[in-house]
Design brief:
Elements: E1 31-32, E2 47-52, E3 55-60, E4 66-68, H1 76-84, H2 86-96, E5 109-112, E6 118-121, H3 127-141, H4 151-160, H5 169-193, E7 198-207, E8 212-222, E9 228-239, H6 244-257, E10 264-269, H7 275-286, E11 299-301, H8 303-317, H9 323-332, H10 336-348, H11 365-377, H12 379-388, H13 398-421, H14 429-446, H15 452-469, H16 474-481, H17 489-499, H18 503-541, H19 548-576, H20 588-594, H21 600-609, E12 628-630, H22 639-652, H23 673-687
Parallel strand pairs: 7-10, 7-12, 10-11
Antiparallel strand pairs: 1-2, 2-3, 3-4, 5-6, 7-8, 8-9
Helix pairs in contact: 3-5, 3-22, 5-22, 6-7, 8-15, 11-13, 13-14, 14-15, 14-16, 14-17, 16-18, 17-18, 18-19, 18-21
Length: 688
């Protein structure tokens, strides 16, 4: 890296020859270091007087700039340069630390080795690298872009590196966009190289009082090392109204832009009214021949969204039953003074829980569960406070507390299941059948409760359960069979309890679907290899058989016959073996990776099916029925920047993580509203 040249210093008007005090950076001829007189001033400790092309020059010992140095010029301009020279300032600092540095060298850093020994080496300060690191910091931790213009921030950086020059928010925005484009290219390349099918989740986000919403499109697949990958592809602005046609075109454009429209396994969406019709439009435009089972298994409802609707509707039926607990929590959390008194009594009673009272909200049913769960821990506190606080008149009765205890137990099982299926770090499609029908069977037990409120809750949830999951989705049944701990045995165990005497029909339906899927995969594998088979068979038969075409047709038919036998042998072998022990830490992807040679066709199916998630949401909004929501504070962000931040954060974290947990607390101040208004309007108009 070349040394930057400090800005030339112009001599003040006090000197007679001030107009000659500018720095001369012209190409020089032969130099001479012969002085023309005594140099008494202290400034000459920092300059060397030389004769260049017949003109006396003062050469800076640090930056090597040349200033005029005739006896009539004085030394004021030399003093000014000495004060402004950045390299001199850097040397003064490092000299104090007793460290030698060269141009742009920063203080020595310490490197630790495995043996515990330390080694020091010098490194060069590169402001470009620092800017990129700051941009990554802003993306990862959701800091505002304006942080780079804060005085305290720049003071810290200047103390670490005196050569640091502050940057503007526009400069750091450019760095963020560069990171976004670079990371996006890597993700596109990864999708191009991927050999398996890709599952897509699409979730709508809305912005209050704006004509633009957003669609978060995420790709899920298992790579060649059998690792589950989840990548946020786009955070796309979508103009309102969100009709089936608009959403379909937006999603299709994203899929084609990433060249994955012919590699899809399934699409998982929530229960929005337009999604059913949107799926039909999308199937017509994609082409069913490129989809599994001609698109019959393409559409999957989001499990978490559906369960949220079921639980929310059920809780609305018994909302009055927990009214006193809600009123009590509201009373004591209404003011800080009451809260202090509540915590004081809890401390006196020896309650060490660090959980605070929380009031539930209508959109997130888990808040009702957390409210009840927390209130139960402070039951004795409520009772004692009722004796000392005259205004507190909503103490729950013993029956209310007993109901709350039972309700908490019931909701906890649902809470844990949603937490399980909101994770994208491991496969969940193989676990769907087990947990969903465990919930269904537990609802029958709720009907025998001694509390009418629990019975009402169970009846409401069973009604909705039958509405959404009367028939198990075929691809999720196959995912269950692909788990070597379950295979067909789990289905054979549960179906009699679910379908009664008609269970054998449903068991056979799942078995037939699994068989048809294996045959389809095998036939597509054959069609992809048919040209090579034709060429190889032609070369062999042409020398020995005069009836080349006829014999070639027979041989290919014979090959198809053999391969079909092999597929049936795979199925029979896999289903005929004993199931594996039920262990919670079972690595299903590792098992299929190790058994690829034994089950080549089934392993391809497993790689495609096990990558399919059963939820579109992360744990941050797993319990909300209102979908993704971008708060009004974030409308200052233009859509392109918002997308770059959302996607880049997901990519830099190495996995999708929890998109919905992003708080956007820092993003609200990225731009001044008036500065970004025109840019935002341009992007908004282009979306419409």
């Amino acid at each position: 890296m070349s040394t930057p040249t400090p800005k030339p210093i112009v001599v003040d008007d006090d000197d007679d020859s001030s107009h000659q005090g500018a720095v001369d950076n012209a190409n020089c001829g032969k130099m001479s270091s012969k002085p023309t007189g005594r140099l008494k001033s202290i400034v000459w400790q920092h300059f060397e007087r030389k004769e260049i092309n017949g003109v006396q020059k003062a050469v800076c010992n640090y930056c090597k700039n040349r200033l005029v140095a005739r006896s009539t010029d004085g030394t004021r301009h030399l003093r000014d340069h000495m004060k402004a020279c950045l390299l001199r300032r850097q040397k003064v600092i490092t000299d104090r630390r007793q460290k030698d540095i060269t141009q742009y060298a920063t203080p020595l850093r310490t490197i630790k080795h495995d043996q515990g020994k330390a080694k020091s080496d010098a490194f060069c300060f590169d402001p470009n690298v620092t800017r990129k690191r700051i941009a990554r910091m802003i993306i990862m931790h959701e800091y505002p872009l304006s942080v780079v213009e804060h005085g305290g921030f720049n003071d810290v950086l200047s103390s670490l590196q005196p050569l640091w020059k502050p940057v503007s928010r526009n400069e750091i925005k450019k760095e963020i966009m560069d990171i976004y484009e670079y990371e996006r290219a890597k993700k596109v390349s990864a999708l191009d190289c991927n050999q398996s099918r890709i599952a897509i989740t699409a979730k709508m986000w809305t912005v209050e009082n704006q004509s633009v919403g957003y669609m978060a499109v995420t790709a899920h697949f298992i790579d060649d090392s059998w690792t589950l990958q989840s990548h946020l592809l786009r955070f796309i602005p979508v103009s309102t109204p969100h009709t089936a046609e608009v959403v379909c075109d937006t999603l299709l454009h994203c899929l084609m832009d990433h060249n994955i429209d012919r590699k899809l396994s399934a699409l998982i969406v929530d229960n929005c009214s337009y999604n059913e019709q949107m799926i039909q439009y999308l199937l017509l435009k994609l082409g069913k021949d490129d989809l599994i089972m001609h698109g019959q298994l393409f559409h999957i409802h989001c499990f978490v969204d559906t369960l949220n609707l079921i639980v929310k509707d059920g809780l609305s039926v018994i909302s009055d039953a927990i009214a006193k607990i809600r009123d009590s929590v509201s009373f004591w959390s209404e003011s800080s003074k009451r809260m202090e008194k509540f915590e004081e009594i809890a401390h006196l009673l020896g309650i060490t829980s660090d959980r605070k009272l929380v009031l539930d909200c209508a959109e997130s049913w888990n808040s009702t569960y957390l409210m009840i769960s927390t209130a139960l821990q402070y039951k004795s506190v409520f009772s004692l406070l009722e004796q000392h606080e005259g205004q507190y008149g909503c103490l729950p009765s013993e029956k209310d507390w007993e109901l709350a205890h039972i309700l908490e137990e019931k909701l906890k099982s649902l809470y844990d299941v949603i937490q399980l299926f909101s994770n994208v770090k491991y496969p969940t499609s193989n676990l769907f059948f087990l947990h969903v029908y465990e919930i269904r069977l537990s609802l029958d037990d709720w009907l025998s409760s001694s509390f009418d409120e629990i019975k009402k809750l169970a009846r409401s949830m069973i009604e909705n359960f039958e509405k959404y999951w009367k028939d198990i989705h075929g691809i999720l049944a196959v995912a269950c069979v692909l788990d070597p701990r379950y295979k067909m045995k789990l289905i054979e165990y549960y179906f009699p309890m679910l379908f009664g005497g008609d269970f054998s029909f449903h068991v056979q339906r799942v078995h037939s679907l699994f068989k048809d899927l294996a045959n389809e995969y095998q036939s597509k594998c054959q069609s992809s290899n048919v040209n090579s088979d034709l060429d190889s068979s032609s070369a062999t038969l042409s020398e020995f058989c005069p009836y080349k075409k006829h014999t070639q047709f027979i041989m290919l038919g014979f090959q198809d016959f053999i391969k079909a036998k092999q597929v049936r042998s795979e199925l029979d072998s896999y289903l005929g073996e004993n199931v594996l022990p039920l262990t919670e830490d079972f690595d299903i992807l590792g098992w299929w990776k190790a058994n690829m040679s034994r089950y080549p066709t089934l392993s391809k199916i497993a790689r495609d099916i096990l990558a399919i998630p059963v939820s579109t949401v992360g744990s941050g909004s797993a319990f909300s029925t209102s979908g993704g929501f971008v708060s009004p504070h974030h409308r200052k962000l233009d859509p392109n920047t918002l997308e770059a931040l959302m996607c880049s954060q997901s990519w830099l974290r190495g996995y999708l993580g929890d998109l919905e947990s992003t708080s956007f607390s820092g993003y609200a101040t990225f731009f001044d509203e008036e500065n970004d208004h025109e840019e935002y309007q341009e992007v908004t108009d282009s979306v419409k």
